[in-house]
Structure formats: C-alpha cells, structure tokens
Write the structure tokens for this entry.
Amino acid sequence: MRELSRRQAIIGLGAITLAVAGCGEGETPKKAADMSGNKAGSMAGYGLNQQFKATEPISFDVLYNNHSFYPLKNDWLFWQELTKRTNVTLKPVAVPLSDYEKKRGLLVGSGQAPLIIPKTYHPQEEAFVASGAILPVSDYLDLMPNFKDQVAKWRLEPALDTLRQADGRFYLLPGLHEEIWVDYTLAVRTDIMEKLGLETPKTWDDLYTVLKAMKAEYPDLYPMTDRWGVPTPGGNLLKLVAQAYGAKGGWEYQHATWDPALGKFAYTGAMPQYKQMIEYLHKLVKEKLLDPESFTQQDEQAKQKFNSGKSFVISTNAQSLINDYRPTLSKLNPDAKIAKIPVPLGPVGEYKIGPQTENGIMISKKALENKNFVAMMQFIDWLWYSPEGAEFAKWGVQGTTYTKDGSGTYKLADDIDFVGLNPGAPKHLQKDFGFSNGVFAYGGSTELLNSTFSEEELEFQNVMNARKPWPVEPPHPFNEEEREQVTLWETPLKDYVTQQTLKFILGERDLSEWDAYVKELEGKNMTSYLNLVNTAYERFKKEHG
Amino acid sequence: MTPTRSRGHRVFQVINAVILTGVVIVTLYPFVNIIARSFSDERYILSGQVNLVPRGFNLTTYRIVISDPMFWTNYANTVVYTVVATAIAMTLTTCYAYVLSKKHLKGRTVLIWVAIFTMIFSGGLIPQYVLVNGLGLTNSIWAIVLPNAISVFNLLVMKTFFENLPSELEEAAAIDGLNTYGILARIVLPLSKAVIATMVLFYAVSFWNSWFTAFLYLNEAELFPVTIYLRNLIAGATGAESAGAITAEVSQAAANIQSVAITLTVLPILAVYPFVQRYFVSGVMLGAVKG
C-alpha cells in the first residue's frame, strides 16, 4: 500500500514538473496537474456548508506575523479547537510584525518558506512570481468551494481580475469582503460646530463653508491640519478629495486611471479631474483654512495640534478616533467632542470607493509536492473563507468565548474583553485565546465585520453602505519586458507629479502653468507609458477577457 | 598648576570650555529628554510640554514592559548572547591578530587579505541565510555568535597594537624558556590590557545592540534578544491593527513606549562605560598613533 502511494506521488510529481515547464510558454492549462498523489487526508466530498475535517491528523507550517499586542502563545484555545475541528495542526513560524516583509522575502528567496504565507498585500506577491517560488492559486480554485461561492455571491470577479498577472492567473488568495469597507475619513470637533451652529458637511464644498466659518471665529488658527503626510504627502486627504472628483491621489495614486467615456486609460496626474482636486486644495491653503504643514509634518505634530485645540478637523479612521484623539483631547479639554463624518462627496456623486479585497495568502509552490496538498487547500478554504471558519477565527467558541442570540447578535463572554466591549474584564479575546487574530480573521460578511463595531461606527458604516460601489477598473497586467520598461519610467513620473502637485497646492507654482506641467510630463514619457498600459489592457482583454 | 600661563592659553581654555559645553548639551539633551519622556504622563508628552524634567510622573509603561515575562526572557538572552559572543570574538580576534603581527610569518599578506576581502565583499543576504541554515545553526545561539565573530576593523587595530609591542620582550621570554603560547598568555596579553578592554567594549556594545542577525536566524520568540522584543513592541504600539476602544493604560504606553524602550536597553551598557573608560581613551589611540 505504502509502495503504491509513493509511486503515485512520483507520477503526480512528474506531471506537475511537466505542467510547470509548460507554463513558461504562456499557455494556461486549466488543470495544472493530476492530484491523485496529493490527496492524503483530504475529504472526498468537501463542499459548501460542510465542516472540513482531515481524514487523518496532518500538520502544515504557516508563516506567522507575531503581533506585539497579542504575542503568540502555544496554549491558545484557537490552536486546540482548530485541531479538534479540522484534524489539522498549524505549526507557526513566528516573525515579529516589525520586519515581517523582510523575513518573508528572505524565506521565499532561500526556498525555506512555510507552505502557507498569510498577510501578503497585493502587489507584494508580484516580486515572487518571476522566480516561480509561489503557486498560481487561481489554477486550484476548484478545491475551494467557499472561496468560489463568495466570489460569485459578492460579485468579486472584476476585483480578482485586478490581481491577475500577464499569464492570466493570480498568485494571491485575497481576503474577500461582502461590500467595500470604508474606514478612513475626516474627524471634526462637533462641539465647535454646535457652538457656531454649523451642519455636518456633506460635500467638499460644505466642508469649505464650515472651515470658513471656523476661521471667521478663530482667525489665528488653521481650522484644519492633517496627518498621514509622511512618506506620502497628503496620503489620506489627497486620496479622498481625488476620489470625489474621479481621480486617484495620495495613498491611492496610480499612474493610469480608467476613463469609461473613452474606453481606455488616461494618465492620472494630467487628468482634468486631478486638476480639480488641486484647485480645491489650493483654495483651502490660499485662504489659510488648511495648515500648509499638513503635507510634510509628522503624525505626532498633527496630533498635537489637533489635541491641543489648535485645529478642528483632521484625517481619521475608527481606531485613531478612539485611540489617538479622544483620550488626550478629553483630558486637555473636557468639553471637546469629536466624530467621524461620512466621507464628503464631490462631482462624481454618491459612491463609496475602495477595494473589496484585502491582504491574503500566498502558497509556496513546493506545496504541490506535498501529499496533503488537496487537504491543505480545503483547510484554507474552510478556515479563511467559510462563514463558520470566519466566525470561529473572529469570535471563538460559542458558549466559551461568546454567545449568539436568535437575532444573530454576538455577545462576548463577561470575563473577556476585546476592543473595549467589556472594559476591565480579566481576560482578553486576542491575548488569552488567540481569536480575532489579524493572521486568521479578516474579510467576510458585512454582518460579521460590523459585529464588533461601536454604535457610532455602525452609524458611519450605515451612511457609507447606502452609497453605490465604485466600479472596478479593468486589469492591465504587464508582461515581463513591459514591466521592466515601466519600472524605469514610473519613479521619475511619480516623483514629478508628487512634487508639482504640492507646488500647485501650496501656491509655489501658479495653476495657469498647468499646460506647461502636462508638457513636462510628456518629456518624462507619460505618453509612452500610457500606450504601454493601453496595449496591455487590449491584449489582456483579447486573451483572457 | 603653574602661574606662568600666557593670556592666549587662558583665552583658548575659555573658548574650548564654551564649545565643549555646547557639544555636551547638544549630545546630552536628546538623551535627558528621552529619559524625561519615559517618566511623563501622556497628556504632557502629546502636547509637547516635556523637556528636561518629567511632568506628571507616570510609571505605567515601565510597569507594562517589566511585568511581561517575555521581556525578562529576552533580556536574559541578550546578556547571554553578548557575553558568549564577546568571549568567542575576543578569543578569535586576539589569536588572529597576534599571528598577523609577526612580520616573519610566511603567507602573512595572504592571511591579511583573506580578512580584508570579507570587509569588502559578502555573499549577500540569501546565500548567507542558506549557509547558516544548511549548517543547522538556525534557531540556536550559534547563529548569533558564530557568523561575524571577527570584526576586521577590530582585528586590524589589534594587529597594529601587537606590532608595536617591543619584540625584545618576547625574545627575552623565549630565551627564558616560554613557548609561543606562553609568550602570548603571560607576556603579551598582560601588556595589552588597554586594547583588550577597548575591543571588549566595541564587541559588547555591537552585540548588545544588534538585532538583525537574531531576526534573520531565530524563529521562536523565546530565543529573541530584547532588542527585537522592543522593536516589535514599538511597531505594535504605533500601528496596532485591531479597531476599537483601548484602555487608558494602552494609550499611555503608546505615548512613551519608545522612550521607555530606549532607556531600558541603553542603561545597562551605558553603566559599563565608566569602568572601562580609562582603558578606552588610551586604547583606541594606542593601536593607531603610538609607535
């Protein structure tokens, strides 16, 4: 029996080698290999709504991003219960979160990486594609019924397409969200707004009016100062304003933006919409409504200004609101009140804009040589993508760490704390049990995502979820040669756009010179760049569309 | 203290004192400021009011860090790694340097270039990792203490020092019946206290501060030196990923975890300085200038 299975494994291996060798030619076989040698421990009829349980005890190495807030413990209930339910033991290779990416690169590069490599943010996986060290997971989705189900149910096909490489496959199993999840926005001092009789701003123009009114009352202050300016100037602010005008800026800046009217890509930094974003921000700076240091100062300085009452509006997310601003602000000024405002709107209308996928899992190519490969894919499918797996990873064990009533409301056990749900409780869901761990619990249904949010955050989410999702752009993956060329052009272009954007906003360069600026971009190969993008788009559409 | 000092000399003394005081202030201020912050309340830190003296005396962050058993495990690791690594490095460097200092040695130039070659070229990160892993050193103290055991710079300083010892002494010792090892152990080393103290300090400080080799080759938190522990603590405090309310304790920690971390790691090695200082000053100069 043993002899036979070993022979099967060798045959399977041979088939894989052939298939892999064939991949280099640009051919995309749907089935990469015969799996008969890799089925040990797998469930024959694994499917939707089914508890995965390996038919024999198996174990896998997993790269583990060790968070200092809840350092890895081997006696966590998470590990025990996971093994009990799935017959799988995970062996974590712990890497401190401070240098996770460095170590991951080293391990993959030296061929020592564990089979399962979570916490990878697109496009980080692209660095490993050329070396052939990681698995084109898109070829094996048939082993993952829950993943396929979520993609179909939540219409994630277009989002997945953006992960595809020139060969038409993708190499990362992303975290999937039922809906676009918007977290970053602006925080305002509501007590000041009340005092001045101002309404919550709905649009960016409203915000301008609000800032103006604040300035009139406090002429010595900049009513808005901003953080998240280092290393990307205006990381969050430029992103939000650009979105409102239909461009991309700040953290989200990309050279090419899809223009649905023309049916091709335009160069972002030269788009009229991008210019509108600049004009708006320039107006704020010129009228001394926005602190010009917003684009260069460290977060620490911005927080100090906001917390000590020297400004009233600042970028935030749910966590910063509660951690960075509220505690200090209320200590220094007990009357101060702050809130997240729904992301202000612009000419594009009521859209919520953002990704529906997030960081995910890479699989080492050598997993194909493992006799438990099929079981591993089923296991990943269950833990990360099935509703039961996601609930288990986030909330733990029903009756032990949480209870759930008939209406589907989750309640944490009384002696356990998590995100301030039971302040002062002796135990902690992450630290003492290993649940809601960033390595295993992310993505999933909106219901699950919202289950740990506070009242005020839910309110924000409700407003945002009423907006339409912004359509995903079509993919334009480069081939290897193009990528090399593009890399040479991208850096000078991006540096120039960033630099000139700041000059325009701060008034160091007059906006009447916009056309001259676009010409200067031409001189930096903007048009050639765009041609490559559109060629890549056309090719991908023809071959894989 | 002779009374016949020229005016010019006195002026020089004054200017010297002023400039050096300035230098002392410039180097000392950030350090005192860090210590002050580590004992201050977050309220004063976040509004930028802490300078030289702690305000709103607060020990919360110290308590958080010190009450974690992993902190002490890792601190002990650092001590062990530093002691073992320094001992190994000193033995190897001394032996190598002493051999190289003998001008009559055949192939001496080759041996020197073997050392200098490693100063200029290295195999690169991944080959190094593959090598260390292939030797089975990963996840053990040997991965920390064996690679980089000889610092070529220190080796050359020591070699120069040994070259400048009068060879007559060694000849006399040889005539009195000592063999090579005897000469090294009983004549040369006792005369080299200055350079040895200096090298011990150099090595100890660099091993104490190092985190990268440990980060590369160790996979278990129980084996990490305290530098990695603190590095990770800082990263986690400034970029925590779990959304939601946090307790007052955590927000206090976020405000001054960096300064607490720096204070805790720097103090012990700083305490060593005064004891070796007298060797240190003369030692660095000895190898290079005297002769």
Remarks:
- Confidence is low (pLDDT under 50) at residues 1-30 of chain A.
- The radius of gyration of chain A is 25 Å.
